């Protein structure tokens, strides 16, 4: 074996960059973790979190066997006993109160576990509950909604073609810390520096001078929550100054005039004060964007977690279209994933439907099959028909990750039954009656179902399980739980249950004549690998089960040492479009209807102090604080504040402060930092590991404060249901 390939290949499951790793191990212990230099996609890059996979694998607090709560105390049991407990309690709730009484919530790590991602929807379907929630409504639902309404599918998300781009305008993203999001772009820092070295420009719009903003050619520290007005003004300037040039896309557009009319009332001069920027700066930015040979506008988390998150997400792509940069090399482009991408499959263009049902208490509409996660607490806490009495949480820690976390914590205590699929006893799962663990990432194979649809290069990569396991994996639990809910024999061999499910799915999705040969070709080994093979073979590069000789299948991907490169992104309009009109909808009525709200909010008085979040390269949402390698070093859960704001309040660096917001109050250490726009403070989320009855020995030594105890669960973007997390009014005083 050459040194390039020494060590087993593993796709890093920790963030969206999905870097290829080389992991060496001996005697069941990890001895070395490096970037896989032969990975065509990540080219050897890795960040410190990947090295902590060793800590995760060896963490004594990580659950290895199911837990059942007996007399208020968790005891380890075998899988059968754990499922018997679920059977007794969950089926009882279902029988007595019906499907909606059982809610399900799925969190971020699930998107990195193909078994959870592939089998969770089946369980939800089997239960038949309307009460499905996920981290998507704390995150990217606005982008998925705007993509759906403009291009016809929830996952038709355009990503900056950074390697061929000359001008990148980035709003509300800090990829130097996050490693990119809704944009799978390993080693983003090198790629951004390369862009600059080519003579290109990076412009970052962010209330904080982040790591990415510090690298940028220009940083605009706008007022939190004002992106919609900035984007409106940029578009208005393009129209006003005759800079609108959609080019090749012109013949595929609907609604150009409506868009023009919508943005016209917002020239830079009208929004400058609201944005906290100079009108001339905004005007010049529009001109720079229009003048750049190849440019992309990218909006991420900070633009989604606002009242106008959907409008922002829409206008970001509208700008890409108006400047002729959507779907062209060096602009914002659509990946063509090897598998699982609905926008690559043939079929009628139907667009998307939403609002098919409403949440019981607040009447929030369903979006992409789910309800806003900020409705979860009230659905549990509000009595009446349809009340949620049981919860299944899958890789989700909403007590720390969802606004109103403290109130949700209380609500979880009122449930009749709670089942968690998780790897820790933490702030959320401590409420569970049964916990079913996942295996360590080193014990499971992996294919990136989601991130291959958001990647800056098309590729197909697979990683094998590196270490053996003697416990069931999470998908087996989900499979048995599905059988249990369906009243089938859940104790049957896994292969039998999985075969039955596969047969049903083939019957649903394939013409009859095709089913038997496909079924035979997929083999007898149960589990997600078979589904990946199916998706790859029916996908756009696939062998179509023999009809496309030489085409892709899982065997080929497995045989490649670090995956198969399928090349740079290519233009996909109109082939990609799935809107009923077959065109790009530049002015969907849902967004046009936001005009009065935008007009009303323009002159809202500014709160004195607002809170935004923060990510750190060495931390990941709520669950990696128990890994010693990442936990060491300076305290990370600090409240950052501009020195001018601090002196105004008589606060000094390092002071313990009390922060009060609409959801409650917490305490944190103050860190003075001139990286913040005055009037803005920043606290990271995912902390607050000081709850009793958790099993996080390392994390609880430096617990930090729960940001989401400050934020209330009542603020949403009404279109996408996404939570408002940015720009929340707070007060800060000495504790
Ligand atoms: N205020 C504020 N709140 C935020 C954010 C913010 O920026 N500001 N960001 C939001 C965003 S973008 C997101 S995505 C959410 C994330 O929030 P969540 O979706 O809650 O995700 P995590 O906090 O990453 O972890 C959830 C759980 O997954 C478990 N877990 C880890 N690995 C595995 C595994 O392999 N199997 C199983 N079964 N479980 C596992 C962990 O133990 C943890 O309990 O937080 C959101 N909350
Ligand atoms: N190291 C690390 N990596 C991660 C994660 C992590 O927790 N740690 N989480 C992962 C997850 S789940 C996600 S979703 C991604 C998120 O990845 P990113 O989208 O890059 O998210 P953040 O790093 O939170 O950057 C959001 C930025 O928005 C800014 N912001 C806040 N309010 C506003 C506003 O009103 N307008 C504008 N323009 N900007 C604003 C913030 O200051 C912040 O710099 O990161 C992923 N990667
Ligand atoms: S950037 Fe993300 S995917 Fe890459 S090594 Fe770090 S945690 Fe893993
Ligand atoms: Mo996220």
TrEMBL record:
4Fe-4S Mo/W bis-MGD-type domain segment(s): 5-61
Alphabetic keyword roster: 4Fe-4S, Iron, Iron-sulfur, Metal-binding, Oxidoreductase
Any GO CC annotation of this UniProt entry: oxidoreductase complex
Molecular functions (GO terms): 4 iron, 4 sulfur cluster binding; metal ion binding; molybdopterin cofactor binding; oxidoreductase activity
GO biological-process terms attached to the record: cellular respiration
Gene3D superfamilies, sorted: 2.40.40.20, 3.40.50.740, ADC-like domains, Dimethylsulfoxide Reductase, domain 2
Domain of life according to the entry: Bacteria
Pfam families, sorted: Molybdop_Fe4S4 (PF04879), Molybdopterin (PF00384), Molydop_binding (PF01568)
InterPro entries: Asp_de-COase-like_dom_sf (IPR009010), MoPterin_dinucl-bd_dom (IPR006657), Mopterin_OxRdtase (IPR006656), Mopterin_OxRdtase_4Fe-4S_dom (IPR006963), Prok_molybdopt-oxidoreductase (IPR050123)
PANTHER family in UniProt: NADPH-FE(3+) OXIDOREDUCTASE SUBUNIT ALPHA, RESPIRATORY NITRATE REDUCTASE
UniProt protein name: Molybdopterin-dependent oxidoreductase
């Amino acid at each position: 074996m050459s040194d390039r390939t020494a060590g087993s290949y593993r796709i890093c499951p920790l963030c969206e960059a999905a870097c290829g790793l080389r992991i060496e191990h001996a005697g069941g212990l990890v001895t070395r973790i490096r970037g896989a230099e032969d990975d065509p996609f990540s080219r050897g890059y890795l960040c410190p979190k990947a090295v902590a996979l060793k800590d995760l694998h060896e963490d004594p607090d990580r659950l290895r066997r199911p837990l059942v709560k007996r007399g208020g105390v968790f005891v380890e049991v075998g899988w059968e006993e754990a499922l018997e407990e679920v059977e007794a309690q969950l089926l009882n709730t279902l029988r007595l109160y019906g499907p909606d009484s059982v809610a399900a919530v799925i969190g971020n790590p699930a998107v990195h576990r193909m078994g959870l991602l592939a089998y969770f929807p089946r369980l939800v379907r089997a239960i038949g509950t309307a009460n499905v929630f996920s981290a998507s409504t704390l995150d990217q639902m606005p982008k998925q909604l705007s993509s759906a309404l403009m291009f016809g599918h929830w996952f038709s998300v355009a990503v900056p073609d950074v390697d061929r781009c000359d001008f990148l305008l980035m709003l509300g993203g800090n990829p130097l810390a996050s490693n990119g999001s809704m944009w799978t772009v390993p080693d983003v820092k090198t790629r951004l520096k390369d862009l600059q070295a080519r003579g290109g420009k990076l412009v970052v719009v962010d209330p904080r001078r982040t790591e990415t903003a510090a690298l940028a050619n220009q940083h605009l520290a706008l007022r939190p929550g004002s992106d919609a007005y900035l984007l409106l003004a940029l578009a208005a300037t393009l129209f006003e100054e005759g800079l609108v040039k959609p080019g090749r896309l012109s013949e595929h557009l609907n609604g150009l005039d409506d868009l023009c009319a919508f943005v016209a009332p917002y020239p830079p001069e009208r929004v400058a004060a609201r944005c906290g920027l100079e009108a001339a700066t905004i005007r010049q930015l529009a001109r720079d964007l229009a003048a750049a040979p190849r440019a992309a506008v990218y909006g991420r988390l900070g633009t989604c977690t606002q009242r106008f998150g959907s409008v922002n997400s829409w206008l970001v792509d509208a700008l890409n279209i108006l400047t002729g940069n959507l779907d062209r090399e060096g602009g914002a482009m659509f990946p063509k994933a090897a598998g699982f991408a609905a926008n690559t499959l043939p079929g009628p263009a139907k667009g998307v439907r939403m609002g098919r049902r409403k949440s019981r208490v607040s009447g929030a509409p369903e979006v992409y099959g789910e309800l806003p996660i900020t409705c979860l607490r009230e659905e549990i806490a509000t009595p009446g028909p349809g009340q949620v009495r049981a919860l299944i949480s899958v890789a989700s820690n909403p007590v720390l990750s969802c606004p109103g976390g403290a109130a949700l914590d209380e609500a979880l205590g009122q449930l009749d039954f709670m089942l968690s699929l998780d790897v820790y006893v933490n702030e959320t799962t401590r409420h569970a009656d049964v916990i079913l663990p996942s295996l360590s990432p080193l014990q499971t194979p992996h294919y990136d179902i989601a991130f291959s649809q958001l990647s800056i290069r098309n590729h197909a990569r697979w990683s094998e399980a590196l270490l053996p396991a003697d416990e069931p994996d999470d998908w087996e639990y989900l499979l048995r739980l599905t059988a249990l809910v369906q009243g089938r024999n859940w104790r049957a061999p896994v292969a039998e249950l999985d075969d039955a499910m596969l047969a049903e799915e083939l019957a649903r999705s394939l013409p009859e004549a095709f089913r038997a040969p496909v079924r035979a070709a997929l083999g007898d080994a149960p589990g997600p690998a078979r589904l990946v093979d199916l998706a790859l073979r029916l996908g756009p590069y696939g062998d179509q089960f023999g009809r496309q000789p030489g085409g892709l299948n899982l065997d080929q991907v497995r045989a490649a040492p670090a995956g198969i490169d399928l090349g740079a992104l290519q233009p996909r309009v109109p082939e990609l479009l799935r809107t009923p009109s077959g065109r790009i909808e530049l002015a969907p009525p849902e967004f046009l209807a936001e005009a009065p709200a935008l007009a009303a909010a323009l002159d809202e008085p500014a709160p004195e102090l607002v809170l935004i979040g923060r990510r750190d390269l060495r931390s990941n949402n709520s669950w990696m604080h128990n890994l010693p390698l990442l936990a060491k070093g300076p305290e990370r859960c600090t409240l950052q504040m501009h020195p001018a704001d601090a002196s105004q309040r008589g606060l000094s660096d390092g002071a313990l402060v009390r922060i009060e917001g609409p959801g409650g109050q917490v305490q944190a250490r103050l860190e003075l930092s001139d990286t913040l726009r005055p009037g803005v403070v920043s606290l990271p989320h995912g902390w607050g590991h000081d709850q009793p009855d958790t099993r996080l020995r390392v994390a609880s030594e430096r617990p930090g404060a729960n940001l989401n105890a400050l934020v209330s669960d009542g603020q949403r973007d009404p279109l996408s249901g996404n939570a408002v997390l940015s720009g929340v009014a707070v007060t800060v005083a000495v504790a």
